[in-house]
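Request: Not sure, any thoughts?
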Amino acid sequence: MRYTSVRRAARPNLTGFDPKAFAASAGTPANDPWARREAWRYTGPFTRWNRLKSSFPGLGIATVAFAVYCGYEYLFLKDDHHDEGHGEGHH
């Protein structure tokens, strides 16, 4: 035997009060007493970009140094050993 759920229509609101419309019309208060105390969290060194940037200190310098080393290795450190086979000449 399979049980099915019965979906009922929403009950009519007898008072006429719509909480969603009330929340939408309320918005943010004009004079928030805590706004000044919370503003420091999103300005200066605590902006989203500065927090992201300071999460990985030295990443930019390390990336440039690695790219320079890879270029140096590619241009100046040629390994001629790979042209030979690993056959009889290797003792």
Observations:
- The mean pLDDT is 80.
- Residues 35-79 form one domain.
- Residues 59-76 form the longest helix (18 residues).
- The radius of gyration is 34 Å.
